Amino acid sequence: MSETPEARIRALGLVLPEPAVPLANYLPTVRSGALLFVSGQLPLRAGTLMATGKLGGSVDLATGKEAAAQCLLNLLGQVRASLGSLGAVRRVVRLGGFIAAVPSFTDLALVMNGASDLAVAVFGEAGRHARSTVGVPVLPADAPVEVEGLFEVAAD
Is the dihedral of CA 8, 124, 151, 140 positive or negative? Predict the structure, then answer.
């Protein structure tokens, strides 16, 4: 893949957002050596949640996948703010997904594929990652999905 991650995002018809301000007492990113840890991001678009509620309840699978992809896009906005460019990302190491769902909803992994698929679309093979997906009863602001990330980045 010769084009930049930012160019791939534009080619997908997406816009890399400005990073959201933390909702509580934490940092949006922390760098330790060649690793960049990015705090969980909600599916915000222009400062507003694109959906609220629970998967298997008021949120359907397609909306959940779209929300997970938006969370990944917001993660990448934080990465760009921290590093100056997505070109400094060497690999997506791990994504962690939290899916607010009714107890009977079992397609958590399919929801999280929205984030994983976008990571691969943006970074190619370097976007393939380890992953955890956990169902939870509620997320901040009644968001249906939250995604956190770990990235290997170029040395300073």
Answer: positive
Choose the weakest-confidence range: 1-5, 82-86, 131-135. 1-5
Domain ranges of the chain: 5-153
d(CA 47, CA 120): 25
pTM: 0.96
* Bridge partner list, 119: none
- We find that the CATH architecture of domain 5-153 is 2-Layer Sandwich (3.30)
Q: Are 55 and 30 a contacting pair, CB within 8 Å?
A: no
Nearest-angstrom CA–CA distance, 62 and 39: 24
The CA distance from 150 to 113, in Å, is: 16
Q: Which of these, 122, 117, 119, lies nearest to 149 by C-alpha position? A: 119
What residues contact residue 120 under an 8 Å CB cut-off, 6+ apart?
A: 127, 128
